[in-house]
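Review form for a predicted model. The reviewer records the input and the model, then writes brief findings.
Reviewer: anonymous (R2)
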Amino acid sequence: MKTMNEKQPADWHDLKGQSIMGITIDTRLDELTIHTLKFKLTCHHVQDCCETVGLVRIEGDFLSLHGAEILHAEDDAGAQDPSWYKEDYDESHTWTKLSLYTSKGDVHFWFLGQSNGYYGEDISFYKQ
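Model under review:
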C-alpha cells in the first residue's frame, strides 16, 4: 500500500487539469515543486558524476498563479538553445523547457544540463 509521502514516478503532463496551490524552488538542490490540491510534483536531476543540471531562468510570474487551473503542461526536453543565453557551453548540453499554461497566465522554467557527453543531462519527475 502506498502512503501519501511515498515518491512515485511522474510525468510533467500529470499536472494538466490540476489547480496550483504553490510553487517552490530549492536553489540548493535545483528542484522545482508544483503543489496541487491532489499531489505535489517535483522536478529534479539525479546526479551521476560529472554533470550539472540547474534551473537557469523563469519566464512569467509564477507567484501570481496560486489557484490557477493548469490547462496544458508542456515538457520540451532538448529545446533549442535560447538566444538570451550568452555563456559558453561544456562539451555537451541539453536545454529542458517546462511550460505551464494556466487560467491566470503562463510560466516557463528553463533547465540547462551540461557534461562531457558521457552523463545524462535530463530532468526526472516524481510526485507525492
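Findings: Residues 92 and 118 are 9 Å apart (CA to CA).
Further findings: The mean pLDDT is 92.
Recommendation: see findings above.
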